[in-house]
Amino acid sequence: MMEAWNALEGAQKVFWCVAIVASIVFVIQTIMTFVGLDSDTDLDTGGLDVDEGISGFFSLKNLVNFLLGYGWAGVVFKNMIHSTLWIQLAAVGVGLLFVLVWVIIIRQVMKLGVDKTFHIEETVGLVADVYLRIPAEKASSGKVMVSVRGSVHELEAVTAGDAIPTGAKARIVSVVSQDSVLVEAV
Question: Which domain holds residue 171?
Answer without folding.
Answer: 120-185
